[in-house]
Specification:
It contains five helices and 13 strands. Strand 8 and strand 9 form a beta hairpin. The longest helix has 28 residues. By secondary structure, it is α+β, with helices and mostly antiparallel strands. Helix 1 crosses helix 3. The chain starts with a helix and ends in a 17-residue tail after the last helix. The strands form four sheets. Strands 6-5-8-9 form a four-stranded antiparallel sheet, with no helix packed on it. A three-stranded antiparallel sheet has the order 1-13-3, with no helix packed on it.
């Protein structure tokens, strides 16, 4: 469901058909929908996760970058650390495949770069060094040979390899193909640039280690950047010189928000091979490009948007309702609003708030599984 679908639903619920007598413009409805999504997200946020590389002897980290720049991180829900068993992460391939041109068509003309990664049950390594080749007219097929394979590992086996390639004269490799084994050493590439333009890029973190089970959820303190600003964290992972962290005189808002893990000295990471998985909350996306609101909750957004639209339109200056006296300092007078309109507006807002409370209780019930695996409370608030 996209924004246009919600707009149509709101117009139907408001009995506001298109035409000369239409009360609300699309801009009016979009503002009401935005307010409804904002309020809904406070009760039922969009939960995403990001993997972050631990740094040696470091407890404080900056907030993860949100999945969408228009939906910033609101708060952290959960932090899993360590995500994988220490020492099980595989090294990235140390060399790339050998490349040779072949007669045929498919690729463009120009310089192509190739790289590959190892795949395990837990994830994927970082990429190998790049190898490159330049295609010529009539020789627009590339044969890849000597594709590296991983050595046998009793604790963490390689189940496949991903091949990545740039576009002609490009610099950003994207997924070309997956070899679902650890034996194939050749591949013929005649895939056009357009076919891989929107495929995933190479991983920036090595997630190939064996996942720990059960997951270890860690206590953490949010907004610890008020004391140890994230901008004071050195790239090496250390806090810098003595007294260097948190002593800046700049405004608090100038410091990037951070969180601090409650780790004992023995649990501190010794190197940067350990990952943590951070689950964070953002507002929901609802625009022309996509929607993260569950389909079953779209009627709640419609209800809230109707309530906010009715509230905005009942303002006297919008609908020629009478002012008290027309003065500059005149105050809003709800007695000048038709009683039927006022009751309809209040009823919609009351229903919207009740639905938000219901999904809040449902979310609290479902979160029992965090501590009691599989034991879901039998009572449902809406039947």
């Amino acid at each position: 469901m996209l924004l246009s679908d919600i707009e149509n639903a709101v117009r139907l619920d408001l009995f506001d058909p298109a035409g000369a007598s239409q009360r609300w413009s699309n801009a009016d409805l979009d503002r009401s929908i935005d307010r409804a999504v904002e309020r809904y997200s406070q009760y039922y946020p969009n939960i995403a996760y990001a993997d972050m590389q631990a740094q040696p002897y470091q407890r404080t980290y900056p907030y993860p970058a949100s999945w969408n720049a228009n939906c910033p991180v609101l708060w952290l829900e959960r932090v899993l650390y360590p995500l994988q068993a220490y020492g099980t992460t595989l090294n990235a391939p140390t060399s790339g495949a050998s490349l040779a041109l072949a007669a045929g068509a498919g690729l463009g003309l120009g310089l192509y770069k190739y790289t590959l990664t190892f795949l395990t049950q837990g994830g994927e390594t970082t990429p190998s060094p790049l190898t490159q080749i330049t295609t010529t007219s009539g020789n627009q097929v590339v044969n890849l040979t000597n594709i590296p394979t991983a050595s046998a590992n009793s604790n963490n086996s390689v189940i496949g390899r991903n091949l990545y390639r740039t576009s002609a004269n490009g610099n950003i490799p994207t997924l070309l193909a997956t070899l679902a084994d650890n034996t194939t050493t050749s591949y013929t590439d005649s895939t056009s640039d357009a076919s891989i333009a929107s495929t995933p890029g190479v991983p920036v973190l090595n997630t190939s280690g064996v996942m720990l089970w059960p997951a270890r959820s860690r206590a953490f303190a949010e907004y610890s950047g008020l004391y140890d600003g994230a901008n004071a964290l050195a790239s090496s992972g250390n806090m810098g010189g003595m007294g260097g962290a948190g002593r800046a005189a700049s405004a608090l808002g100038a410091n990037a928000p951070a969180f601090t893990l409650a780790l004992s000295d023995a649990e501190l990471p010794r190197d940067n091979t350990i990952l943590m998985r951070i689950f964070y909350a953002t507002r929901h996306q609802l625009d022309a490009q996509g929607c993260t609101v569950p389909e079953i909750h779209c009627d709640i957004i419609t209800l809230g948007a109707c309530a906010y639209a009715l509230e905005a339109y009942q303002t006297p200056t919008n609908d020629n309702f009478a002012f008290q006296n027309g003065g500059v300092n005149d105050r809003f007078d709800d007695t000048a609003i038709p009683s039927a309109w006022l009751r309809a507006s209040q009823n919609r807002m009351k229903q919207f708030q009740q639905r938000l409370e219901e999904i809040k209780r449902q979310r609290a019930v479902s979160s029992i599984s965090h501590t009691n695996w599989g034991r879901i409370h039998p009572r449902w608030w809406r039947v």
